[in-house]
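Re: duplicated header lines in exported structure tokens

Our pipeline writes sequence and tokens for each protein into one text file. With two proteins the header for the second block appears twice in some exports. Here is an export where it did not happen, for reference. First protein block:
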Amino acid sequence: MSLPIIIDKSTFQSLSFEEIILLHNYYRPTITPILTMEILGDLKKDFDGSKTASERVKDFANKLLPYNSAVSIFYREILVNDLISGDTPLTYFPILGSSQLVKSESGKIGFHFKESPQERALCRWRDGNFIEAEAELAKIWRDTTTEKDLLVNLKESLKIEIEIEEKFKNIDELNEFVNQILIDDKQQINILIFIISEFGITNEDASKILYRWSQSECKNLKVFSPYALHCGKVKILFDLALRFDLVGTRPTNMLDLQYFYYLPFAKIFTSNDKFQKILAPYIIDSILEFID
């Protein structure tokens, strides 16, 4: 079976179409929603409706999804489901969304997975159909995610909100501090509330989550929702690294952070992004491998 691999935009752009095909012979790329959106944003930069621009869209789509790929559902959907039910399998294979048991004409039983919005978009792109709504979405995406002072403002607010006496010289020291917080029994409910707040979980879903927490015998996030604990680790580490000047304030860092939320669903993560290479060693575990 091919190894599940997550590639970021820097890796995707560095590979030719022939190299992408070779990659698919040995690995099973997981296409994350963030990668689709980043490519969509790039396509918008020079998409003018011309035949040349339409052909470029088709080339991107065919390069992104030639065959043997898995298109993951949005990480927040996985997170909410795991917090409510606690049954998300962290088996290093992608989560493909809702499915149903079906029987073929020959009588064989299998699963049918519903097509995700990203898959529908990619199919349209492969046909050269870069619809106006997607073009407008790409413009909005680029305008809002490349706001010059986005992380500068967040950094200043974190300095006010987070009062910690410790001074961290590097990510190693910070990571040790964060890991101690994550295993502290007294901090488990605080971490849970932080996750609910930071990831924009609705009041309705938050009520279900907190009710399940109240009924749970084990008040430990590693047992209650392992995936939520992973997401919490990523966000806390990033916020504190930003707060203590250990990572930069480039606006796209907020986008690049999203790739880390999908790491429990792959065996390999590859990137040439400076920000990701700084944080990746502290987020991956002994089973996942990071390749520059």
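Second protein block, exported in the same file:
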Amino acid sequence: LRKTNSAYERRIIAQKERIEYQNHEIRQSINYAKRIQMAILPPDDLVQEHLPKSFVLYKPKDIVAGDFYFLEPSDDWVVFAAADCTGHGVPGGFMSMMGHNVLNQIVNDEGTTSPAQALTLMNQKVLDSYKKDDERQQIDGMDMALCAINWKTMELEFAGALRPLWIVRGYEVLQFRGTKKAIGSPIGEEFQNTTVQLQKGDLIYMFSDGYPDQ
């Protein structure tokens, strides 16, 4: 009986060591993926250069994030976004990488600074990528608040895919709702620009649902 117990104990220990090794390998891989994901986000000095006195709260629920933020100067405009992709962890991380790359292509390669036009192009590109998978049952996508500011004219343009924009002006909160359509959806309203003439002291807030969700 003692020998049987010893053999059983050895099997338990071997299984434990195998699980620990696999967990270590998986965690190392995800941590490396996190470094890659962090590398695509705009650096803090770039954010402060083009959005002075701004802040970013970015705390992924898991190691890698389903949310991402974006900033890119283009001519007289600064284009910036807060996006919330379908899923958490690794699936959300893949979606965030795809969303960032598509938005970067639209702004940098195609020179688009209109938020509504950018969301429309993103929606089409994401849908086109889904068409390559005939067996796909679920449509994954992302919600996004996308803005462009012209600091010369103090003009802000906003378009949202299920995400709002808040502007705090004195004791008033101006709320601009996004279009009721996610990026990656074949149906819904057309994305529309909202133009706001900014005033000195305005505070602009964009966010995913991550903070209240967690």
